[in-house]
Description:
Blueprint: E1 2-6, E2 27-31, H1 39-46, E3 51-54, H2 63-67, E4 74-77, H3 87-92, E5 96-98, H4 105-119, H5 122-130, E6 146-150, H6 154-165, E7 169-173, H7 179-184, E8 188-189, H8 192-198, E9 201-204, H9 218-223, E10 229-232, H10 241-249, E11 255-258, E12 278-280, H11 289-307
Amino acid sequence: MVRIAVLDDYQNVALQMADWTVLGKDAEIVVFNDHVADPAQSIERLRDFDVVCLMRERTPMPRSTLEALPKLKLLVTTAMRNASVDLAAAAERGITVCGTGGVGHPTAELTWGLILALMRSIPFESQAMRDGGWQTTLGRSLKGKTLGLIGLGTLGGQVARIGVAFGMEVLAWSQNLTARRAAEVGARLAPLDELLIQADVVSIHVVLSGRTRGLLGAPELARMKPTAYLVNTSRGPIVDETALIDALENRRIAGAGIDVYGTEPLPATHRLRRLPNALLTPHLGYVTDDTYAVFYRDTVEDIRAWLDGKPIRVIQA
């Protein structure tokens, strides 16, 4: 019997999104819908499992956790990059780590959902309607405004093209961005300071790394227009959370659309939850039916291939 744990299935859909029966009768699948933040509790929960299936970075797998799971032989993480898994420690312990394919466009789509909701006060007006109100705010149009993109990879490029379609001027910056790449998607390469000063909307699309952690702190936020919005659908720690809360509380920027956080799930008492100019979503960028279909289909394929002694989509340290 091979025991398989499927973690953090918040919507309770994992078993519906793929055919798990191909793993055979000797595979015992246990799905956990809740999130365990305490490492000791996580270790206790997973101690008797041979395979653990991770949904993105929801449950970290540092060295200390891996060393406390003697039966673990296979880790499957959705997508091919997971910074919360200690790959070196896994390799030392003979734990195979595999990834899955993914779908890129949902996060770009959510980014524009947040931008439109902020610019037109959609959540506020929706609630006002329920409370009996009518036309309580004055929206702002996108055409003629400036969109500033921090990062212009696959997702950033998709967001840029939509900005151009709306008639926006698009500025872009990242450490290695070239003017040629920017021009390919209708953007103009600009220094970070210029982008922050000029943009009406700043949207983040860089990967979290040592170079980008805390990239936007108090000095950078202070360069933004008081009428500008910040949107983050990448990773929470790219923005200094304390500095962002201060900027929002003191109206140094107009507002923020935030999908990602330093601690997830975001604690119920977190200060961000109380800010009227913070539009919050619970890390929904990749949470769509087509994304999950790929994630769980490939997860099952990874497990079946490993059981057959021919692991696929292996992630190396």
